[in-house]
Amino acid sequence: MLMNNTEYLAIIDDIRLKIRSAQHRAVLAANGELIALYWNIGTVINKHSVWGNKFIENLARDIKHDFPNATGFSVRNLKYMAKFAKMFPNFEIVHAPQAQSAEIVPVPLAQITWYHHRALLDKVKAPEIYRWYAAQTAENGWTRNVLVHQIEYGLYERQVIATKTSNYAQRLPSPLSELAEQTLKDPYIFDFIEYRKGMVERDIESGLVKNITKLLLELGTGFAFVGNQYHIEVENEDFYIDLLFYNLKLRCYVVIEIKSGDFKPEYAGKLNFYISAADIERRIGLIREGQTEPQS
Asked: Which pLDDT value is given to residue 13?
């Protein structure tokens, strides 16, 4: 029997998927147990806080004696555990019970590594902000360095609590309008572009494209780069969009027009024209190819 027929290939692909899923669940479960252990140890330390630092030093020494090959029980890490347990005294917030149905969403705090938690404990004071960054880390797969970058650049302040000006509520249906509003930041920070005196719009565009990975990180979750100077044709005339993106969560195209200097009312008119023209062209192209239309 030849092991290259369609049925066999489908079977092996399915088995690969099951193995990877099981491995992923095992990693999450092990990490969750570790976070739970650290929370429990931190709770014990906090209950005996009157014993002072000597208690933590003795605890670290005795754990090392009983478990010589174990890591993660230094005096410094034990203090992080105490700080973690103090910030989240309710265990249910830290570690969700085993999900009995697909409708139960695990609590993010047990889904990120202790390495991430230590960064959060160093840089975030408010529990609700801590949980927001933890959820974003779990959802987006941020490394610790990316998490620290987002905290230091005030992502929560710019994305969650900033006062934003948009017409999403009037132009988009719910819940798409709420999702678009959550995606928006104010302001956006593009300091990865090296500023030079006399920079023109094309220089800014080149800098953004050159640093596309950093640009996508700043734009946020779900953005995919389609192209720059993206050609569209309207009534036999050629036009070029500075930057065109597609957002996988919003299921829509995002047009970015770059301008330097003070805002002028005609900029908004030109941007609206590009949005309408790009929307029409993309819809026509998708219909011709027989694909499913995204949201406009």
From this structure: 84
